[in-house]
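pinging the channel bc i need a second pair of eyes. not urgent but kinda urgent?? the chain im working w is below, pasted from the shared doc
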Amino acid sequence: MSNNINLKQGLNIPISGTAAQKTRKDVAGTVVAIKPTDFKGLLPKLLVKEGDRVLAGSPVLADKVSQGILFTSPVSGTVESVVRGEKRKLLEVRIKADKTTEYVDFGTKKVNELSAGQVREALLQSGLWPSFIQRPYGIVADPQIKPKAIFVSAFATAPLAADIDYTLRDEFDNIQTGVNAVAKLTDGGVHFSLNGVNFNGTPLHKIENVIHHTFTGKHPAGNVGVQIHHISPISKGETVWTISPMMLAAIGKLFNTGKYDVSRKVAVTGPKAIDPAYVTALPGMSMTDIADFYDNSANDIRFISGDVLTGTNVGAEGFLGFFDNQVTLIKEGNEYEMFGWAKPFRTNLFSASRTYFSWLTPNKKYDMDTNLHGGPRAFVMSDLYGKVLPMDLYPVHLVKACLAGDIDKMEKFGIYEVIEEDLALCEYVCPSKIEIQSILSDGINLMLKEMA
């Protein structure tokens, strides 16, 4: 076991609705969606039209900037519709799935006999290259770059996050194959971070050809950005890649079986979930395919692809994101609360500070909703962010630099080390109700534009 890194700052949000470790159903969706919006920095080029026949692994989209990067169909079927938004922005490609999936045969390969170039080409052709996220900025990795290192977070601490040991318990061999493949793409090794509390209890500690690290602490200890900060911080001019164990398993299946198979166990969670548990599904799964997990007769549920801090509100007719293995169902909080925070007793509300009495019942879970409990206020200096962010940064200064569009100060205060998910807890505890993730996203987009 490696030396453990204990993080003292952070916050675990005690929301109810954890998924039981059982798989209730296999979701055989009739329609799946490929969403270009899942991939930051992508300028999509449509490669199909309505009515076209595709197989699992057939190209559907390409990146206009780097046309070697393909985005392929997770199912076989027929392109049902192409959904566009304002200014004809491409939002979704919906595919009506066959009852039985037919796959493009990419051929099985022995990873140990492949060169880095051959691994890269196989991932590009199959559509698995977008599994890599490049930092700085959290964009799809540039295949022309050799990263300083590749980082994997093999545990999750986000609210109601899917249990990685459960979701990947049958994928050990595929993950090992995936690790062996991606290790050829960097000289800095694959850094594999595990939960120090359960290091020996997870089979993933037996993964070879990696550099093991362990972390303990509250959320965001499981965020790969936080781990990178403590292992090998990103300096200006450096590039690293990150990838999830789930996508490593998909890469392993590509080489072991010759198939583009991105199926996964998805945790259906949240206070509004009925008997929260897991389903076997594909990215692009429709929320209507898990209708037996909720009762939306009052039209009061927010459907989140991901967790409550960083997930996307996709709506009742929306679809699961490419990188997500969790759906969170939470009540839309639209009730007016008389007296608000001034009420003396609020036993059913959680407080990150000691404003309420939740600190007296540390093991209690709360049926949280989307109420903000207040509106935007002046953005003042505070030490609250530092209490939940285990990184040696100045988050308030960074966010204000993003607001001002000051690139020099954004660099000075750590824009290269963070993406939106890393400051999500800062947004949660913010007394000013500032949309920090949105502001940081705007700052990152400015950096991409100006530093290109």
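so The CA atoms of residues 309 and 424 lie 6 Å apart. and The radius of gyration is 22 Å. — does that match what u expected or am i reading it wrong
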